[in-house]
Amino acid sequence: MTRYFIFAILCLFAGYGLVKARPLIAGPKLFIESPANNTPFPNGMVTVSGKAERTALLTLNGRVMLREENGNFSSTLTLPRGGSILTFVADDRFGKRVTAIRSVFVPF
Hints:
The protein contains 1 helix and 8 strands, in the order αββββββββ. The longest helix is centred in the N-terminal third of the chain and has 25 residues. The protein has a single domain, classed as Immunoglobulin-like (Sandwich). By secondary structure, the chain is an alpha+beta fold. It has a 5-stranded mixed sheet, with no helix packed on it. The relative contact order is 0.23. β7 and β8 form a beta hairpin. It starts with a helix and ends with a strand.
């Protein structure tokens, strides 16, 4: 009887540990709110915003983006005329990576 009780307690601890470790195992999440893909911006000013969860490093086209404590980020870019590709990369501290790509267009 005691063995079953100890086994049940160990199973509960293992289950609790897995539930708490799930976000670490899942890796980073990246939500891009703006800009939408294939959006034209006549004046060349593009506001990028979104949220990065469980992220150690967030970059936009290779440059580090600053985030708020809750993971929200926002920045305004001035883009040249023509098409541009915005590449967002979120890395966690364990080396997992998530990438999001947005294409935008500034008319001539």
